[in-house]
Design goal:
By secondary structure, this protein is mostly helical. It folds into 2 domains: 57 residues, no CATH class; 77 residues. It contains 2 helices and 5 strands. A hairpin with a 6-residue loop joins strand 1 and strand 2. Helix 1 packs antiparallel against helix 2. The protein binds zinc ion (ZN). The site of zinc ion has 8 residues, from loops.
Length: 142
């Protein structure tokens, strides 16, 4: 048992997906054929329902790949939401009181707190999801 294949990133175009090989039981980021097996061993898409029955047979657990992706997205979402909100607070506050330094400070604090909050939340979410992953399999975190 164990994952001894090389960690590889296979990116097809701009679309990245988790694929796996039934022959060597390794998972990859996209690609059409297995880079480890000789010949043209076709990779299966892990996201397709008809292929998910094979996931339990794999050497590695592909779930951390999805968890890492979703927690990354949440962090990005937090940053994207925090910036306009901070700007809004700043513009509104300055418009009402004219105190630029005060409202700039409050705006920046808002951005930092929300960004930090979404980062902490996504890290917590990731850890919680990771606990559900059986530890008999090597988690693949690339
Ligand atoms: Zn293979």
């Amino acid at each position: 048992m164990g994952y001894d294949g090389p960690n590889r990133f296979i990116v097809t175009g701009s679309k990245i997906m988790v694929k796996f090989c039934l022959q060597c039981k390794n998972a990859f980021w996209g690609g059409q054929f297995c880079p480890i097996c000789k010949g043209e061993e076709e990779l299966l898409d892990a996201a397709l329902p008809e292929n998910q029955k094979y996931l339990v047979e794999l050497n590695i657990d592909v779930r951390p790949k999805y968890f890492a992706r979703s927690s990354m997205l949440l962090t990005c979402f937090g940053f994207i939401m925090a910036l306009p909100l901070g700007m809004f607070i700043f513009i509104r506050g300055v418009g009402e009181t004219g105190n630029v330094a005060l409202w700039a400070g409050i705006g920046i604090v808002t951005v930092v707190v929300i960004s930090w909050g979404s980062w902490v939340l996504s890290a917590k979410m990731f850890n919680k999801q990771m606990k559900a992953v059986e530890d008999i399999k090597d988690p693949q975190l690339d």
